[in-house]
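Record type: monomer structure entry
Structure origin: computed from sequence
Chain ID: A
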Amino acid sequence: MLQKLDKDIGNKERFYIEEILAELEKESEIEEALLEDFEWSAKSILVTLFDKEFHLKDYSYELKKNNGIYWIEFYGNIKIDDKLLQVVKEVFKTVCYKYGIIFIDGHLKHYKELYLN
């Protein structure tokens, strides 16, 4: 229907399903590269500075997108030492900036909601 409507109003033919699939693939590639960078960077730094292992699954965060804008809201991990958490947060922030993704530090808000409500 959309292709017929485009033709009727004089627009070029578009392949909407292919465009949507291409955008989803691009989104998946960005997310995969981003998570690989987080993992690699945090592992390198935490082992070097603290002799500690890093596992991305131990941290809470959300990758979101709206109107082509990506952001990560980082919630952290309450079981992690403050120094480690600060380093991990900085790694997340740095990698986000590398990919043009906005970093939102939501860890204090998140834990206040969990424990004060």
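Annotation 1: DSSP finds four helices and three strands in the chain.
Annotation 2: Residues 2-116 form one domain.
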